[in-house]
Amino acid sequence: MTTAPERTALPPLGRVYLSRAGVELKEFFRQRESVVFTLVFPVILLLGLGAVLDYDLGAGVDFPQYFMAGVITAGIVGASLQNMAIHIAAERSDGTLKSLRGTPMPASAYFAGKVVQVLAVAVATIALLLLVGVLVYGIDLPSGTDWLTFAWVSVLGAAACTLLGIVVSTLARNGRSASATVTPIALVLEFVSGVFMPFDQVPGWLQDVAAVFPVKWLAQGLRSVFLPDALAAREPAGSWELGTVAVVLGLWCVAGLVLCVLTFRWQDRGTR
Amino acid sequence: MIGAGEPAGRVGDSAPVTSTRPTALADGRPRPGDPLDPDAAVSVRGMVKRYGDRVAVDGLDLDIRRGEIFALLGPNGAGKTTTVEVLEGHRTRDAGEVRVLGVDPARGGRRWKAQLGIVLQSGGGDSQLSVRELLQARAACYAGPLDPDEVLELVGLTERAGARGRTLSGGQRRRLDVALGIVGRPRLLFLDEPTTGFDPEARRQFWALLRSLRDLGTTMLLTTHYLDEAEALADRVGVLARGRLAEVAVPTALGGRGTAPAVVSWTEDGVRRTAETATPTAFVQQLAARFPGEVPGLTVARPTLEDVYLKMIGEHA
């Protein structure tokens, strides 16, 4: 008898990736709670705050127009940071990750599936928000190259928040504590980043704290898309700082990726 | 106790069944320090696993032959799951040499994992996918999987193919776990307490399923704390107590059952009499000669698997 391990065939990577993408889309869109909280919640936020708050920010910008950038930021953070942190922690606690680890599925396929899920959820959320914004508040859609800015800021912000969400899922003790861990983190970051109110109304020292994290830069980049350039003067630097937006979000992607690779676990702590 | 009404074959089964492999001990167990067996599906020497100060596995030596169903039997906390999870690559070990299908599990890559089927003690969580979709997704991880619908047929879940995982009963959920474990055509299947929580009927159906897998040539390592399960399924049983293998044997020979003195009981002059004998057949013949017809209340008993098992884990506790 031969003692050398036989070489077992593996399926084409593309097939595994496609399969995982399908799994992740079904897992998200079939779960009513995740659809309601991630997709519909920002819309409720827009309608709710839009109905209550009403002030003129100058340059003909009303609150819904200003809030569009903020609520899309909240939508992207929900689709990426919160979604990843809560669901990956749950999959770790209930043994889904462990059982995937015992198959020849490459880890990259799991993450590719998550990326597809985040992209799909983020695009659906943004589309829904734009639709409601235009129909209910008659907000001005971006024009020309603003769409390009909209795209790269959203993708870079979503990427950074996805990676951070994966890290947070690992910090959480288990699936149940993940929601309690990440929801305050996300809300506080959104609050200090000018998502719910004009950023220049956030106290200066909190603005400095916010500037460390990606949510502030995501929101600022999106404000440049939805607000007239006249309002750039109200930003801390007096401009949209799109170059800094790209650099900070890019750095968070790199840092998030490194932290993911260093910390990711397939089982809850204390089970090895 | 084996009563007089039991099949005679069990009572007269006095020849111990031993392994014919010349290099190993009579029970087919390697000695500490033996070289790893390159032909074995699983070969373990001196495996140790600690959790802090607690030693979960304390120097395990074991070979599992290809095509065999091997049952690891033991009480809770004996180290069964730890052992299996080290072999699966889910846990690291603190000492010892381990080869699973010729590969060290600590360094097993995707091609190695493609040859394993793993049924964990607790299966996956609440999925939004249907039973068939779960199987199809798992099958997509392998180059030459079984047809998911055929696997559903094999485990008896065809009628629940469209159901979401969380609507399955406990037994159906476990059969889904097994279906997920076998859809990649594993050469070696790990089953960690596969029938815990089954009713007797479901357990028997499940055993039939595992036997049909064995007929396909699948090697199986099964952990259980059900003695009847080990006896019904396993070619060999290893009794694990406090992280050590107390014994490895074919089920009928476990604890010297096959050769242990038989206890013959009968009623004579209105008094219950018992005798221990190594030659129960001869004894019963003599006994029969003393009575005109049937020997009143005659029973011949060997220690049951449960007797020897409880004695064994008691000694090691």
Tell me briefly what this model is.
Chain A has 272 residues and is mostly helical. Chain A has helices at 13-29, 32-52, 63-93, 96-101, 107-137, 146-171, 175-192, 204-210, 214-226, 242-263.
Features of the shown structure:
heterodimer, A: 272 residues, mainly alpha, elongated, disordered N terminus, B: 317 residues, alpha/beta, Rossmann fold, 6-stranded mixed beta sheet, 3-stranded antiparallel beta sheet, 12 strands, transport (chain A)
Description of the molecule:
The complex is a heterodimer of chains A (272) and B (317). Chain A has one domain. Helices cover 71% and strands 0% of the residues of chain A. Chain A has helices spanning 13-29, 32-52, 63-93, 96-101, 107-137, 146-171, 175-192, 204-210, 214-226, 242-263. The relative contact order of chain A is 0.14. Residues 1-5 of chain A have low confidence and may be disordered. Chain B has 317 residues and is α/β, with parallel strands linked by helices. Among the domains of chain B are: 65-91 and 108-256, Rossmann fold (3-Layer(aba) Sandwich); 262-301. Chain B has ten helices and twelve strands. In chain B, the strands form three sheets. Chain B has a six-stranded mixed sheet with strand order 5-6-7-3-8-9, with helices on both faces. In chain B, strands 2-1-4 form a three-stranded antiparallel sheet, with helices on one face. In chain B, a hairpin with a 2-residue loop joins strand 10 (262-268) and strand 11 (271-277). The radius of gyration of chain B is 22 Å and the shape is globular. The relative contact order of chain B is 0.16. At the A-B interface, helix 1, helix 3 and helix 4 of A face helix 3 and helix 4 of B. Chain A: InterPro entries: ABC2_TM (IPR013525), ABC2_TM_bact-type (IPR047817), ABC_2_transport (IPR000412), Nod_factor_ABC_transporter (IPR051784). Chain A: It is a multi-pass membrane protein. Chain A: The chain crosses the membrane at residues 35-53, 65-90, 111-137, 149-168, 180-199, 242-264. Chain A: Keywords: Antibiotic resistance, Cell membrane, Membrane, Transmembrane, Transmembrane helix, Transport. Chain A: This is Transport permease protein.
